[in-house]
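Incident log, support desk, overnight shift.

02:14 A customer reports that sequence design results differ from what the structure should imply. Their input is reproduced verbatim below. On-call engineer (initials T.W.) acknowledged and began investigating.
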């Protein structure tokens, strides 16, 4: 998965607590909404090997974790750890020297629902699905990557998610879902009103499964981030993706890198970009798109006055100077856009230096020569003399000013540094 930053902050009732470092090889982690604070009578002090220093933080677990843990112990054929049961409502649990072994650790991992790369398979999927179907848990994030989940597991998990809308983040990457799994997931997405982030990268979706997923996405009203990278579903699915972009009004981030999408697919996706008003990030890295396909994509964004696109990742595409001129026209209409490409072919060393020179260094040099600060320089360009300007106004004055001549791309670098992601630049960020 990618290392992209979240596009929207979690709501206040979503907390993400990192465990303290343990001396053990295993670290168990759960993301949950905090339950109401309840006064507890602390048990008598545990033995020295497992004693905990309890802090008065919001509690981490809720009623229902015990039942899930006991079911997981039955599945794994292990004896439940009484110490873990007694302390599972604490923020931190030290499980050193309890002789858990692989099966015991897996049982606890199931209870904590951050259980990536544990090869849980169908039985593990059944336990998790049963739990979420019959329990109003406050858990909001599930990490189930790399667990050998196949089509039957998809059916179970999607059935649970069709009624449990508290799960907001779901990671099902690196599993073995194919066409039937895609159909189950598509049906779930059509009715689910809880998920905001879904990672399905590194599965085996082909045409039928991927199209079914897209059909479910058309009317989905909550999902903002979707990762479908490294599935290899090709140009045929691009038509369905274009329809998703045309009809879906909430998707903000879409990664379809590494899917064997060529210029034909880029053409179909561009049709959706012409009318989409919500998407901000589109990643097409590692697809066989060349400059012709890239031009179709950027012109589609140019034709859409309501486009909110901020990043188009085509970073394996080698472009020309003519492409750059076309891109200048797109940037003029959508100054918030950043197109990431590989390089400009045939560009002379002199032009390359001019194109890539750090603009902030040039501005700093000017400021030093005139014994002013960078902030003073920017404020001098603002008719109101304040610390903020709209992105559009700032771009215009930066191109027109002659104190520090900058090209379009250098101006864009300055904007990225000062942009508050609200349509405004803030000079105090220098």
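02:41 Re-run completed on a clean worker. Output:
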């Amino acid at each position: 998965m990618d290392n992209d930053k979240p596009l929207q902050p979690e709501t206040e009732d979503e907390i993400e607590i990192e465990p303290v470092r343990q001396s053990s090889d295993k670290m168990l982690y759960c993301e949950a909404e905090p339950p109401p604070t309840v006064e507890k009578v602390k048990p008598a002090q545990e033995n020295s090997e497992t004693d905990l220093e309890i802090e008065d933080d919001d509690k981490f677990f809720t009623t229902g974790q015990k039942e899930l843990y006991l079911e997981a112990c039955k599945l794994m054929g292990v004896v439940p750890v009484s110490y873990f049961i007694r302390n599972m409502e604490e923020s931190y649990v030290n499980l050193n020297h309890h002789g858990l072994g692989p099966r015991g650790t897996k049982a606890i991992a199931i209870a904590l629902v951050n259980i990536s790369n544990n090869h849980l398979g169908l039985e593990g999927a059944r336990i998790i699905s049963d739990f979420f179907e019959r329990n109003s848990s406050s858990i909001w994030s599930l990490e189930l990557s790399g667990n050998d989940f196949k089509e039957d597991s998809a059916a179970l998990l999607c059935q649970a998610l069709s009624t449990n809308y508290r799960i907001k983040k779901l990671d099902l990457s690196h599993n073995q879902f194919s066409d039937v799994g895609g159909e189950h997931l598509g049906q779930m997405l059509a009715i689910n009103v809880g998920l905001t982030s879904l990672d399905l990268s590194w599965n085996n979706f082909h045409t039928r499964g991927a199209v079914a997923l897209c059909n479910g996405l058309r009317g989905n009203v909550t999902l903002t981030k979707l990762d479908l990278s490294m599935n290899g579903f090709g140009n045929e699915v691009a038509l369905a993706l274009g329809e998703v972009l045309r009809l879906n009004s909430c998707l903000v981030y879409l990664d379809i890198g590494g899917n064997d999408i060529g210029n034909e697919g880029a053409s179909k996706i561009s049709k959706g970009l012409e009318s989409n008003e919500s998407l901000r990030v589109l990643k097409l890295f590692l697809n066989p798109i060349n400059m012709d396909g890239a031009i179709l994509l950027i012109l589609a964004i140019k034709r859409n006055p309501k486009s909110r696109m901020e990043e188009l990742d085509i970073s394996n595409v080698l472009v020309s100077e003519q492409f750059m001129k076309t891109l200048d026209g797109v940037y003029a209409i959508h100054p918030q856009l950043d197109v990431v490409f590989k390089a400009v072919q045939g560009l002379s060393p002199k032009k390359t230096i001019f194109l890539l020179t750090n603009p902030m260094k040039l501005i700093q040099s000017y400021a030093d020569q005139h014994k002013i600060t960078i902030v003073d320089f920017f404020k001098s360009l603002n008719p109101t003399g304040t610390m903020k300007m709209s992105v559009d106004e700032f771009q215009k004055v930066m191109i027109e000013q002659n104190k520090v001549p900058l090209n379009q791309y250098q101006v864009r670098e300055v904007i990225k540094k000062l942009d508050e992601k609200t349509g405004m630049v803030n000079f105090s960020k220098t």
